[in-house]
Structure formats: structure tokens, C-alpha cells
Design a protein that fits this description.
The protein is built from five helices and seven strands. It is of the alpha/beta class. It has one domain: P-loop containing nucleotide triphosphate hydrolases (Rossmann fold, 3-Layer(aba) Sandwich), CATH 3.40.50.300. A hairpin with a 3-residue loop joins β3 and β4. The longest helix has 17 residues. The protein is globular, with a radius of gyration of 16 Å. The two termini are 19 Å apart. The relative contact order is 0.18. It binds guanosine-5'-diphosphate.
Length: 199
Amino acid sequence: MTANPFRSAQFVLSAAEPRQLPHDSGAEIAFAGRSNAGKSSALNAICDQSGLARTSKTPGRTQLLNVFALGEERRLIDLPGYGYAKVPEAMRAKWRLVIDAYMRERESLRGVVLIVDVRHPLKEFDRQMLDYCRDIEMPCHVLLSKADKLGRGEGARTLALVRKECVAQNWPATAQLFSATAKTGLDEARTKLLDLLVA
Ligand code: GDP
């Protein structure tokens, strides 16, 4: 890929609720994942900006939907990471409601990128998200992150297993290996995101 259109991504705002988001027009993609799965690193790598998703880690902003604009009509939405140890259950339940409402109601949402640590594929949260995508017919692209932590053969085996599970569960999902550290899978991820944004 010669020019990376995601390089223009800029932080816009943090929203506690969907109604605080920018006007619901154009197209956007949401990034989801368990905390520590590598979501911020993936966003930074895809956008080729080392500090971009630092915003999402700022204390007080981890529970918010952080919005990054790609020009006027396209956006990336960083959803709250799921499973922060210090967060009480009542608050997690509230996040779930916010994410549910966002995904159900947002007209401009074109797809979800689900970040999953390749060493811990498809935990409960990931399955819930994929089930939810199936329920609302929302395309999902799974980034099996930190692929540099596994050998080639093991990574390929995990990818094959996850793809097989997607078919078996009828999840509307595709999957790939990804490493923000080794910068592998970047072009594949960007191409997929662009396809979703123009679909
Ligand atoms: P988030 O909580 O999902 O946003 O996760 P982060 O992006 O902050 O990453 C969590 C931890 O995993 C950090 O220590 C990162 O340095 C590490 N990490 C993220 N991506 C990769 C990767 O591709 N390879 C390796 N080896 N470590 C990674």
C-alpha cells in the first residue's frame, strides 16, 4: 500500500454515551477487545501514529467511546476495553449497555474490529461480541494480535481454528494474524477496514 489513508486519523472527542458522538452520518468502524489485547497498539500501528490511542488510556477516558476522524465523513471508534480488573461489576454492566446501544442504533457503523490476543483466542467477551454481531448482522474482522509471540506454524494453526469456529458459529466474521510490534498484517487490516468503510 503506497499512501496510508489512516495516517490522517485525528482524535475528536470522548463520549460517555452514543448521543454525545458526532453526527451519525458517513461511515465508521468500532474497535473492541478485552483490556490488554493490544487494541491501542493496533490502532496506532494501523494509523502509523505512535501516540494516537494514548488518549484512550488517559485516566477517566478508558470508559468512554473515543472518536478518531479520518476526514469529514469517516471515523474509527475505540470502544471501552472490556475487563479492567479495577472496575466494579456495576460499571461493567453499564459499559455493556452503552456498547449495546451504540452498536444497535448507530446508522454509520459499518463493522467491528475485534482485537484478540492470539495466545488466548476467543474468550467469553469475544464470543459475546461475535454472537452480538451475528444478531445485528454486523460484519466483524478479528485481528489475532501479538502474532510475533507465536511461531509461524502455531499462529497459522490458531488462525485456522478461529476461522473454522466462525463458520461453525455462523459469525459474520473474517480473521487474520496481526502484530503491532513486528508490523505484520498491517496492509491486510487496512485493506479490510477500507472495504468496510466504503461498503
Ligand atoms: P489494550 O489494552 O488492548 O489497548 O492493549 P495495548 O495496546 O496497551 O497492549 C497491551 C500490552 O501488549 C502492552 O504491553 C503492549 O506493548 C503489548 N502488545 C501490544 N501489541 C503487541 C504486539 O503486536 N506484540 C507484542 N509482543 N506485544 C504487544
